[in-house]
Amino acid sequence: MGDKLSKFFEDYLNKEPLFVNKKILQSGYTPENIPHRDEQIKQLAKVLAPALRKEKPSNVFIYGKTGSGKTCVSKYVVNEIYKTCKKNKLDVNVYYLNCKMKKVADTEYRMIAELARGFGANVPATGLPTEEVYKIFIDTIESKNQLLILILDEIDQLVKKIGDNILYNLTRLNSELKNCEMAFIGISNDLTFTENMDPRVKSSLSEEELVFPPYNAIQLQDILKERANLAFRKNVIEEGAIEKCAAYAAREHGDARRALELLRVSGELAERDNQLKVSIKYIDDAENKIERDRILDIIKTQPKQQQLTTYSILEFHNKGKKIFTGEIYGYYLDLCRRVGLKPLTQRRISDIIAELDMLGIINSKVISKGRYGRTREIQVTIPSSNLTKIEEALKEGLGL
DNA sequence: AGGTATTCACATGAAACTATTCTCTGAGTTAGG
DNA sequence: TAACTCAGAGAATAGTTTCATGTGAATACCTGT
């Protein structure tokens, strides 16, 4: 037994890995070269250029679907500006903030607190009035004469959640600052985002606008090839694999992030199977695995009540009938009794079902059954190959 | 037959409540000078 | 008297409950032919 294992490790070590540098395919990586975004880079650079003379550049709004290079390009350009400024001893600072990150910047308080922390202040997670946090933030940045460039990624999410008040406050802050200035780069996935926003905020925040079109399959191929060259050893990718990755991602509005993830996971799977090459079949496997892991992760980290709801839905799904809210609630009540949990109201379950829909675990649509009322018709979108694993995870989590 | 009115079974919204986490403040306590 | 402790007040936030209102179309109910 021990022999076998040590041989396994031995083999593992001697085997040439497929990857040279896996980091290059991971999502946080900012490449040196961004193909097919020259135009956008140039435009953004043009807008931000005044920063090099320490004048406040216009605020910019960047739109585009997920994985169209928004974050990548803005980080890249801003970083270049930062470097140049440092070289010329200009006090220009940049800060990147992702507003969607749970528990970090998804409320007004947390966002300002996070910004303040980013510039060195010490802000507690709770307990202070929001006004106070604003003051701390102002004080910290005002301690130096500087120009700030703030990248607010995915603000549409934040605004959707807590309103556009926060943006108004931010832009207004600028006029209260004596010592320094702030420029904003807002990044949004939602193209219609500014439409129902306070016009005052809109005009001051989106003085300039950039739209990132989605990549097409050919462009995705270029991106993948470039990164694959850096990330993998030479010639480990089978002919056509890259093309397939690109095609899959292109099908989903040209999401480069997805394409890269697909390629990375394919590589990981191939490596695990001791293959010398990443063959095409691994891409299908990878797509399956990504989806399964995503759902499994969501479900495992859900609170018990959500798990119960999900479980109820899956049980009904197995019976192969159409599923409606009322049935689920009934079954859910039953489950609660069995597990010994205090059941929630139907109102709440209704919301939970809507949340599950948002997460892409199920597909629900509101229909009217005429005389027999109005309800949600629910469909499970999990492919059946993944269903059993997920059910088991649920059962285990619930102790059933 | 054709047109209205009902009605069902929830959806959807808003507000209020609960519980938790954390700060700040000031009263009371302690220990050293 | 300075330093420390500790309870209470006040904030932010997540997750719910309560109350109120909305709604699409299958049926029930008319109506005049």
Description:
With 400 residues, this protein is an alpha/beta fold. It folds into three domains: 38-212, Rossmann fold (3-Layer(aba) Sandwich); 215-297, Helicase, Ruva Protein, domain 3 (Orthogonal Bundle), CATH 1.10.8; 302-398, Orthogonal Bundle (Arc Repressor Mutant, subunit A). Helices cover 54% and strands 12% of the residues. The protein contains 16 helices and eight strands. The protein has helices at 2-14, 38-48, 70-87, 108-118, 130-142, 155-162, 165-176, 199-205, 217-231, 241-251, 256-272, 281-301, 304-318, 325-339, 346-358, 384-398; strands at 60-64, 92-98, 147-153, 181-188, 208-212, 323-324, 362-368, 374-380. The protein has a five-stranded parallel β-sheet with strand order 2-3-4-1-5, with helices on both faces. Strand 7 (362-368) and strand 8 (374-380) form a beta hairpin. The protein is globular and about 65 Å long. The model has no long low-confidence stretch (mean pLDDT 90). The chain binds a DNA duplex (33 and 33 nucleotides) through helix 15, strand 7 and strand 8.
